[in-house]
Amino acid sequence: MEKSYLNYMESTPLEMEEMIKRTPIAIIPFGALEWHGEHNILGVDSIKATEVCRRTIEKTGGVLLPCVNYGAFKTMNFPYTFNFSTKALIKMTKRMVKQAYGMGFKIIVLITGHYPLKQQKQVRRAAKMISKKHDDCFALGIPEQAIVTDLGYYGDHAAKWETSLMMAINEEFVHLDRIPAGLNFPERGIQHGIFGWDPKEHANKEVGEQILNKIVDRLSFAILKVKETRSSEPFDQIYSNFKEAMRSLRKLKNLFRIQGIKDVKEGIAYLKWSLFKKKKYNPDYEYKK
User: Fold this and answer.
1) For residue 84, what pLDDT is reported?
2) Which domains does the chain have, with CATH numbers?
3) What one-character-per-residue DSSP string does 80-129 give?
4) What is the pTM of this model?
5) DSSP structure class, residue 16
6) Beta carbons of 83 and 77 less than 8 angstroms apart
7) Among 25, 30, 26, residue whose Cα is nearest residue 48
8) Which long-range contacts (CB under 8 A, 24 or more apart) does 77-85 make?
């Protein structure tokens, strides 16, 4: 029976050969091994990215490659968190897309669930490099939220959005009872590694399902449009829209609103911790109101 898509890890060489001839699409999730508060499992970034990619490949066809779990740099200084060499991972990502193209894939999509700015640049530059080098290759490298900023999701860490997504994927992955209520932004971040709107108050399964479905729908639509038109325009439009959305965060009031920072004093407390304490985990931190 002919399969509409393949999981690389479970595929035979013959199945790969036939799929590449029929649907030369490869999707690669990137994640991290990183603390996401006491209420989330440690594999949040990898599981989110893999779920987005799996659901997308079911719609587009092609091959789902394994998640690059050891794919993160610039991680936070929190327990049970792994951090790796920036140069090594950039080199690895470029090599991955080169080899994927060499195998015959013509559409290559990199989705990162771990999204500090340098991580976003890592997948975007690798995608643009291979697209520029080969006229018949169309690659996209984005963080998961890049196509749903209009719904309010600009990315957070273990807060409303990530926690809601995990609840949509598997409610057993989330334990909101393990974090206290009523924490302000610096307390959430410095004590618990939560950056964004309080998940205790704002996270729920319905929000997660809405965002997850919209990401998959828009991403699969763009991929199929690229396949149909043999043009990079749908991917270019995603880059352009995301760049414009992120530009709005240059205004402090927009940044505060999106991240759930109540006022300038909370923002300054977080900034001092970031600069002078190097984001070092401090469960005993007290916010001076």
Assistant:
1) 87
2) 5-276 (3.40.50.10310)
3) T-----HHHHHHHHHHHHHHHHHHT-SEEEEEESS--HHHHHHHHHHHHH
4) 0.96
5) H
6) no
7) 30
8) 77/278, 77/279, 77/280, 77/281, 78/34, 78/35, 78/193, 78/281, 79/35, 79/281, 80/33, 80/35, 80/42, 81/32, 81/33, 81/34, 81/35, 82/32, 82/33, 82/34
* Distances 178 to 1, 109, 206 between C-alpha atoms, Å: 47, 36, 21
Residue 1 pLDDT more than 70?
Answer: no
Given this model, what pLDDT does residue 205 score? Answer: 98
Instruction: Give dist(CA 231, CA 216) in Å, integer.
Output: 20
Task: Give the Cβ contact number of residue 248 at 10 Å.
Answer: 12
Residue 7 in 3-state DSSP?
strand
What residue has token string 């036939």? Answer: 18
Strands 25-30 and 107-112: parallel
- The residue written with tokens 């479905």 in the block is 213
